[in-house]
Each structure stands twice: as structure tokens, then as C-alpha cells.
């Protein structure tokens, strides 16, 4: 749920168990954060040396992916999955480095905090007031063979923080007054427990029914209902929030997600709009969603055509902007979508940041 719960320590404990069982185990990257107990737990495990790379007029130590692959252990420990690499390395993100290590036939143990999940980015910002900049796609978590939650009560984590076991003592007061407030930790713990519970349930269903030769058991397996989601997005920051919410809905339904941006024919985007669309394209790629850009004079007509082509069963839109002047006399976008898409569910996704303080605290 947060830094300091003991993820890296637990990973090292399991690594020692694996090594004792005869598996060739190495540390590819370890970040003990100057915690003596964590550093002591790493003693006895081989470390693949880091490489130095230039970054902002200095040299920084980073994981050496080619060296790990050349070493070819059975198991490699790679801390801080959501880390962003300096420019010039093989990949932008560490989770992409891990993909290379896995592709080389090397098993990986890694660590991450729940607030780094891409589709929880908005929710974490709403709960804690902190926007997490380093994220990783939810698909990385769902593709893991095993997910282990290191659970700790908020009270116990705060006690560890006060004892200097998480950050140096001079940073404790600042941490307690910001991210490490007990209400933040309680919310993050709930998110972490929910994520792992959903992951366990999804894997249970797969294990229970996959590969069975018994027709009666196979027929008892949950059947996909053929849902397909379409989210109507714009070239504004709110579109990323809508895309993340839509992706989580798609995951719960086990369905594909399309993002549709409707552009007026012949209209050129200004610089800010183009930046937002590029950011949306990058987010779609990270989520595994399909970004569709279509030209059309009418959003509802274009959306209805695309929905028919894609087999859409569920459409999500953001809160419509308030109509002004004579536009208030016209038919709203949700009404036009309902008229043009009979049999398709339409959902308006609320902007939770607009909720009042009293509702947030209740």
C-alpha cells in the first residue's frame, strides 16, 4: 500500500529460500533506501553490478539489463517496478526492462506500490491529494504468475516511520503531514487489498476451468457475454480520467475497450489539444485500449457508426459541458446517443473531483 511496509525485505527473504532450494538467484537491482535491516537481508545473494549512465550533468547508477541477460540466472530480483529510466537506455520504464529479462527465460521477483497502477492514478490523487507521476500498466500486474500483498496496518506503518525505519528521522515530520497521514494509508490499504482480491478471483476462475475435458464442468464455467466498451474522449485532460475509469469497467466485464475521438472535418488541433491527444494515445497504448480517431460533423452520428462497426454494447461519456444560449434548447448528447444506439447502454462518468468536501468526508 505504501513505502516502508516491507516489500523489498520480503522479496529478499523469499530469494534466500529459493537459493537454498538450489535455484541460481541474483539481485538485478535493489533499492534498500538506506534501511539497515533491508541491506542486511541482501547479504549472501550475488549482485549483478549496475552500470553508470549520464543524466542531467551527472552520472547515475542504473540496472544493467544486458549484463543480467548475459549472466542468465534462474531468478532475478528487480526492485521498484514502476521506476522511470534515464534517457538513452533500452527502455523508458523498468517494467519494460523486466519484459526483456522474462523473454530471456529468467524468472523475476519485483516490488511495487498500489498507487503506481495506471488506472488508479486519478483515484489516488483524489484520496491523497498527491498525483503520482510514475505509473505502470495494469496489464503488468494481471500478467504476473503470482501477486503477494505485504499487508500492514496504517498504525503499524506510522510507528515504523517514527522509529526511522522508513525514512531518515529528519524527514519523518514532513512525511506524516503529507502522504503518510493515517487516512491516506487506510485508503491505500483498501485499494491494495481490493486489487489483490480481484486478481486472486480472476486467477481462480482460470485455474478452475482451464483445460478441463469434462463437458459438464466446462459448461459450468462463466461465459463471456460479448461486451465491448466505447468511451467518447476529447482533447482535454479530463479524457485521461475517463479512459482510466472506462478501462477498469472493461476489466470487470472482461471486455475490449475502444476510445473514440471525433474530430471536425478540416479542423486543425492547436498545440495544447495535440499534446492532450498525444498523451491519450500513449495512455491507450499502456492500457491496451484501442484509440480510434474519426472525422465527423456530429459526435452522436459518428459514435453510432463506430459502435455498429465495433459491436459496442456499452458507451461511456464524460459529464456534458453546460449548454449556453440557444444550445440549451437543443437535444443533449446523452439523449442523441440513446436515440441513435438502441439496445446500447449509455453511462455518464462523473468527475469525482467536483464532489463537495462534506461528501468526500462522509
Describe the protein in words:
By secondary structure, the protein is an alpha/beta fold. The protein contains 15 helices and eleven strands. The protein has helices at 7-20, 36-41, 65-71, 94-103, 121-128, 138-142, 154-162, 172-177, 182-209, 215-220, 238-253, 271-287, 299-310, 333-340, 357-361; strands spanning 25-29, 46-47, 51-55, 58-62, 75-78, 107-110, 228-233, 256-263, 290-295, 314-318, 345-349. Strands 9-8-7-10-11 form a five-stranded parallel β-sheet, sandwiched between helices. Strands 2-1-5-6 form a four-stranded parallel β-sheet, sandwiched between helices. Helix 11 packs parallel to helix 12 (271-287) and helix 13 (299-310) packs parallel to helix 14.
List keywords for this structure.
362 residues, alpha/beta, five-stranded parallel sheet, 15 helices, 15% strand, disordered C terminus
Amino acid at each position: 500500500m505504501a513505502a516502508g511496509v516491507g516489500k523489498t525485505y520480503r522479496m529478499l527473504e523469499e530469494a534466500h529460500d529459493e537459493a537454498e532450494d538450489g535455484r541460481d538467484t541474483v539481485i538485478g537491482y535493489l533499492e534498500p533506501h538506506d534501511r539497515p535491516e533491508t541491506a542486511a537481508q541482501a547479504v549472501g545473494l550475488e549482485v549483478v553490478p549496475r552500470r553508470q549512465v549520464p543524466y542531467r550533468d551527472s552520472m547515475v547508477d542504473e540496472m544493467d539489463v544486458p549484463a543480467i541477460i548475459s549472466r542468465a540466472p534462474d531468478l532475478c530480483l528487480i526492485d521498484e517496478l514502476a521506476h522511470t529510466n534515464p534517457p538513452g537506455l533500452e527502455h523508458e520504464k523498468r517494467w519494460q526492462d523486466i519484459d526483456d529479462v522474462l523473454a530471456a527465460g529468467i524468472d523475476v521477483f519485483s516490488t511495487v506500490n498500489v498507487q503506481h497502477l495506471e488506472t488508479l492514478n486519478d483515484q489516488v490523487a483524489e484520496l491523497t491529494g498527491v498525483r503520482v507521476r510514475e505509473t505502470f500498466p495494469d496489464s503488468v500486474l494481471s500478467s504476473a504468475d503470482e501477486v503477494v500483498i505485504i499487508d500492514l496496518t496504517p498504525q503499524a506503518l506510522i510507528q515504523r516511520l517514527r522509529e526511522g525505519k522508513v525514512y531518515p528521522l529528519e524527514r519523518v515530520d514532513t512525511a506524516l503531514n503529507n502522504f503518510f497521514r493515517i487516512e491516506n494509508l487506510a485508503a491505500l490499504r483498501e485499494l491494495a487489498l481490493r486489487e489483490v482480491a480481484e486478481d486472486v478471483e480472476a486467477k481462480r476462475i482460470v485455474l478452475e476451468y482451464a483445460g478441463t475435458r469434462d463437458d459438464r464442468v466446462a459448461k459450468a464455467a462463466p461465459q463471456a457475454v460479448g461486451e465491448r466498451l466505447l468511451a467518447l474522449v476529447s482533447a482535454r485532460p479530463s479524457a485521461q480520467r475517463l479512459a482510466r475509469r472506462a478501462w477498469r469497467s472493461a476489466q470487470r466485464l472482461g471486455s475490449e475497450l475502444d476510445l473514440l475521438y471525433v474530430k471536425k472535418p478540416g479542423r486543425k488541433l492547436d498545440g495544447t489539444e495535440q499534446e492532450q491527444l498525444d498523451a491519450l494515445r500513449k495512455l491507450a497504448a499502456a492500457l491496451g485500449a484501442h484509440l480510434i480517431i474519426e472525422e465527423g460533423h456530429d459526435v452522436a452520428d459518428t459514435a453510432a457508426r463506430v459502435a455498429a462497426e465495433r459491436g459496442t454494447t456499452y458507451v461511456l461519456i464524460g459529464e456534458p459541458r453546460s449548454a449556453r444560449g440557444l444550445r440549451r434548447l437543443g437535444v443533449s448528447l446523452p439523449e442523441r446517443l440513446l436515440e441513435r444506439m438502441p439496445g446500447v447502454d449509455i453511462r455518464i462518468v462523473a468527475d469525482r473531483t467536483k464532489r463537495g468536501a462534506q461528501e468526500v468526508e462522509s
